Amino acid sequence: MKLIMKNLDAMKIEYVTAVVEDGGIQVDQLFFHDPDGYMIEICNCQNLPVLPISTCPLKNQPPPFYGKGKNCSAEDALLMMENLVIDLLRISI
Fold first, then answer.
1. pLDDT band at 71 (very low <50, low <70, confident <90, very high)
2. SS3 for 12-68, per residue?
3. Does residue 81 contact residue 73 with C-beta atoms inside 8 Å?
4. What are the residues whose beta carbons fall under 8 Å from the beta carbon of 32, sequence distance 6 or more?
5. In angstroms, how far is CA 5 from the centroid of its own chain?
6. In the chain, pLDDT over 70 holds for what percent of residues?
7. Sheet holding 15-22, edge to edge
8. Cα(43)–Cα(5) distance, rounded to whole angstroms?
């Protein structure tokens, strides 16, 4: 987080920080606006535990997005999220 703040200071981009606590776990947050005016949030959300939304789906069939017989495995989803985080870090540095 300090490295991101240092880079934002060097680029003279205004930002605000906050610390929130959820269930005894503290999460640092940093907010700034991109050139288009959209607000960007960067946080150390990896501190929060990952909880499943539901262990019992309402329908026992793959979502139509993946087409017939195709399903996104947990490993694929994890790889996509890791790549997203790496790409976001590259953008922010």
1. low
2. CCCEEEEEEEECCEEEEEEEEECCCCCEEEEECHHHCCCCCCCCCCCCCCCCHHHCC
3. no
4. 8, 13, 14, 15, 16, 39, 40
5. 18
6. 73
7. 15-22, 25-33, 39-43
8. 12
Q: Tell me the CA distances in angstroms from 83 to 10, 11, 19, 25, one per residue in order.
A: 26, 25, 26, 25
The CA distance from 79 to 35, in Å, is 29
User: Using one digit for the tens of pLDDT, what is the confidence trace for 19-61?
Assistant: 988 778 888 999 999 989 999 999 988 887 776 665 555 555 5
Q: Which residues are catalytic?
A: 41
Calpha distance 13→80 (Å, rounded): 29
Residue-range domain boundaries for the chain = 2-47+65-92
**What percent of the chain lies above the pLDDT cut of 90?**
30
